Amino acid sequence: MSQAADPHASDFRHDWSVAEIRAIHDLPLLDLVYRAAGVHRAYNDPSDVQRASLLSIKTGACPEDCGYCSQSAHHKGTGLPRQRLMPVETVLAEAAAAKANGATRFCMGAAWRSPRDGAEFDSVLDMVRGVRGLGMEACVTLGMLTASQAERLAEAGLTAYNHNLDTGPDYYDKIVSTRTYADRLDTLERVREAGIGVCCGGIIGLGEGVGDRVAMLHVLANHAPHPESVPINALAAVPGTPLGDTAMPVDPFDMVRMCATARIVMPKARVRLSAGRKSLSREAQALCFLAGANSIFYGERLLTTANNEEDFDAALLQDLGMRVAEPVLAAAE
Length: 333
Fold this sequence. Notes:
Blueprint: H1 18-25, H2 29-43, E1 48-58, H3 88-100, E2 105-110, H4 119-133, E3 137-141, H5 147-156, E4 160-162, H6 181-193, E5 197-199, E6 202-204, H7 210-221, E7 229-234, H8 252-265, E8 270-273, H9 282-290, E9 295-297, E10 301-302, E11 305-306, H10 310-320, E12 323-324
């Protein structure tokens, strides 16, 4: 939904200061969760948790050097096999299976710096059309986009484009050197100009400080409109990557703080409890939901890292009395 079409849009702020967001983030935890829960209930149905499925449609050999990523060609010790772009029919079969298992959003990731125009990009467009034809939301993450590529994805019916900021602008070059923060922001602008929803969040546990986490939320919260979707990831350390042996486990309460702060400063975004969720207890996940998280990735893998089993998630949502979102209309509707 565009900001102009949202009856609550005039309530949203896009002029947050870093100090304001830091003060929210640093509240006593239970006070923070209480405040976030109030915002969540004012703008969203607190029983609604969307299940999304994520598939790696092209794996490995990425020319970027992201320090956390097993798919980077720079990190030779991960042992991850390279996989070329999957056939369209295989991807759509996976999407149909995900829908049958309760997912309403199908996300497709390709390990590219940026897609090249041609047969492979045309195949991705066919995947998007096929997923939308199943009555599901379609999201892709393909790296940096040109304006014309964003427009073609919009024409194919793409619901959202994922392009995470990873961390705050001052810490970014400690994690990635092959593209800049401005490159990330430029792609987000092209996506928004094409009329595609923005899915953009980050990762905690990269060695950053609290200030870097707050700075990332500051960038996102001051976008107008806010991103429709904000993934909050905890680093899943992969041996063979620069962060594989040095990363410290993320405190579950840090995930709660990030979900709660994101909810307060971006009241209607889908706050997606994403990578690293497997390390969280049921109780920690429940606290994240109370604090405003309202989407999870469903299925046993997130691109190349492990995720919770589907039966575990189904039982958790049932025990919490959470309602699973109904499928959305296809793009042609």
